[in-house]
Specification:
alpha+beta; Rossmann fold; globular; 13 helices; about 575 residues; 4-stranded mixed β-sheet; Glutaredoxin
Length: about 575
Amino acid sequence: MVKMARVSKHTAWLRSFKYFGGGVVVIIISLWVSNQFNLRWDLTEEKRYTLTEATTNLLKEIEGDFEITVYLEGDDLPAGIKNIRNHTRDLLEDMRRTTKGKLKYTFVDINTIKNTNEKKKTQTKLIEHGILPVNLEVNTETGYSEKLIYPGAIVKGNNRELGFTILENQMIFGAHGAMENSLNFLEYKVINTIDKLMQERIPTIAFLQGHGEVGVNHVSDFLETLTKQNFSIKKIEIGKDRLLDGKTDVLIVAKPTEEFSEDHKFILDQYILRGGKVLWLIDQVIADMDSFRIAPSIFSIPRNNNLDDLLFRYGVRVNNDLVLDLYCVPVPIVEEIAGNPTPILYPWGFYPMVRGDQDNLIVKNLDPVLLKFPSSIDTLASKGIQKTVLLSSSQNSRIQNIPFQIALEGARQRPLPELFNQKDVPMAVLLEGEFASHYAHRAVQSQKDLMEHEQQNILVQAEAPAKMIVVSDGDVIVNETDPSGRPLPLGYYRIDRKTYANKDFLLNAVEYLVDRSNLISARNRDISMRVLDREQVQDQKGLWQFITVALPIPIILLFGWFFNYRRRSKYSN
C-alpha cells in the first residue's frame, strides 16, 4: 500500500510538471507568434493602440532604414508628459513591428548630455528643425525646480532628416487639452514626416507674382516653416514661368492688390482643370490699420482684383463687406491719464479670432486664427463640387456693408449686443471636385499664345479632381516685424503678445492640398487622457494603499494555504 501511494504521488508530480511545462511552452510560442506577426487586441474605446490603414500601408512600403530620435525623456517629467512619452514609445514600437525593424527609435534626455559643446550643438539643431524649448516645473525631493525640455523628434532617412514637435499649444485648450491634442496628432506627425522623406520628388509650393501680391519679406516666417517641412518653394509669374508643367503641387495666391487680366485667369483655370491645388488668400476690401497713422479714420472700399467671376464659377463668392465679431483682439488707443499719454486697450471687432468645425481634419483642435478686416463668403450651387466651411465667426458677429467709414475712436464705444446677432459667418471654405471651366470653348488668340508658351493643349473640361481653399483675408499669411524689421512668428500679435494659429492653419491647409496618400486621416484620432480626481485620490489615499500594497499579501498566503491543504488531502491516502 505504501509503494502504491508513492507511485501515485510520483505520477501526480510528473503529470503536474508536464502540465506546467506545456503551459509555459504554449505561452512562449504565443508570445513569439504575437511578436512576429504583430498580433494583439486593442480593447480601448478610441482604438489608441491601432494604426490607421493609411499609416500601415505606407509603413509597409518603406525601403531602407529610418531612425527616429525622440527628445522627450527623463525620470522627473510630470505625469502628463510621461504619459505622452509612453504613448510615443508604444506608437513607435507598433511602427517598428509593422516595418519589420526598418524603423528604429531612441529616446534621449538632452539634460544628460555632459559635454557642453555637444549639448549646445544638439539644442541648435533642434531649434533649426522648429523644435523650441519648453520650461517645465518638476517636483523634486527639495521642492519644485525648472527643467528645460525640447518636446520633439528628428527623423532620419534617405540621407535627409526632418523634425516635428510633439507637444501642442495650450492657448485655448489648457494644459490637459493640449496633452490630449498631442496624443491625437502624434501618429499623423510621425507618418507625415516619414512620407516626406520617402518621396523622391519634394513637393513644390509656388507663390503667384505679378498682381501686387505680398512680398517675400512679409511671408518669410511661413516660407521658413514650409522649408523646414521639406517643401520646395518657388515664385511663378504667368507669361514668364510655366505653371502647367506638372511641377507645382500647390499654388498660393497671397493677397493680390492688382487686377488680374483675362489671360492670366485663363492659365489659372487651365491649372485647376488639370487637378491643380490653389490656396486663395483674398482681400476683398481695402482697409489697413497703417492708415490710422496719418488719419483718424479710413474709408473702406471694394478692391477690384477681377477674380469674382472666376471664383463664382467654382462655387464661392467673397462679398464686398466686413465681418465684425465680439470675439476679437484689442487695439491700443492713447488717452490722457494724469497728464500722461497712456495706451488703453479696447476690443477691435474688425480683427476677429475665428475657429472652425472641430470635426474637420484641417482645423480640428486648432487655437483661434487671427483675421484682419475679413469679408464674408457665400457658397454657391456648383455641380459635383463639395464645399466645407473651415473658418467662421462666433455666435456674436455682424456683417458691415461697404463703403464704410472706420474710425479708430469707435473702439471706445461699447458694442450693442443686439447688433451682433449673426453667427457662423463663413470666412474660409474648402472646395473639392472636378471644376467646370470658366473659359470653355472661348479661348482668344492671346490665351492660345500663352498655352504655346506653356507647351500644353487647351482643356475644355476637368482632366482630374482639384482642390482649393478660399480665405477672405490676405493678411492671414503676413507676419509682423519688430522695430528693426526682423520678422516675428506668423500669428504673433504684438498688442496682446499672443501667438494665434495662423501658421498651423495654413500649414494644415497646404498639407491637405498636397496629401496624396490620405495620411491626414491619421489626424482624426480622438484619444482622451483619463485624469484622476486629485481630491478624491487624497481623501482615499489610505484605502488604495491598503488595497494595492497590504491586501495582496494575505490573499497570496490564503491561496497558498488552500492549495497545500487540498494537495495534502488528495494524496494523504
